[in-house]
TrEMBL record:
This is Zinc-dependent peptidase. Gene3D superfamilies: Collagenase (Catalytic Domain), Glucose-regulated metallo-peptidase M90, N-terminal domain. One of its GO terms (molecular function) is metallopeptidase activity. It comes from the Bacteria. Signal peptide: none annotated. One of its GO terms (cellular component) is cytosol. SUPFAM superfamilies: Metalloproteases ('zincins'), catalytic domain (SSF55486).
Amino acid sequence: MNLFSALSRRLHRWHSLRELREGIIIYPIWKQVEATPLIRTVEASSRVRLRELASRLLAEKQLLGAGIELNPFMRAYIATEACLPILNLPDDLDWYDNWHTLIVRPTPWTAPVHGPAVGPLTEQRNVTLAGVTSLQWPVIIDWQSARPHKPGHHAHQVIIHELAHKIDLQVDDAANGYPPLHADMDGKAWYDAFKTAFDDLQACIGRPHCHPRINAYAATNAGEFFAVATEYFFAAPWTLYRAYSAVYEQLKLFYRQDPRRRFAPPSV
């Protein structure tokens, strides 16, 4: 028994050293990542590919802590969730060629936002942010919001949300909810599905006693609707499907995944 244990430990160390040389997320860290609530819903065969893709992302991108030290698990988890949307996309990491650095803050932060001018003055207010993405700046998220948590009826996946914006920004440098569609997709079907759902959500918010079926933040603009819908697609797929089935079907065609198969349908 002792000899067997010693041989097992030596074999485990050999595998870990080989993985480090090859740049693969080492097995002990990967076991922690794939045990997290969202990642463990992914099919075992797809998790193999996800590990390889996340390892490549870590080799190609910078993940930096700002006021927080990123340990190996945190880095591996962020990279893995970041790769979930591109898992089955052709050219995978090429969809992220418009960013190089992801900065992680410890908690949400406040930032001034300038609103429309009122007379000679511009309205300014402070908003709390969990993540931010723009065309030229790094992706910024906070770990408190991004850390692993159990998916529920509503989706709160800041990593997926911000990187959905980066996918959206591949076209015309504008996050307008219209990413580059695959050749076999119908642009009008995409537009109609998202426009109908967006209008419905905005109308609901404008009515008293109407409860939005997905996060009301999606009604901000078409780009935010796409990012929020992507969060729901991966983390609360049944909620999105029951709210806006046409949007779900378009995202299924785009991401080439069907997350509803990973989750048991919740009771109504």
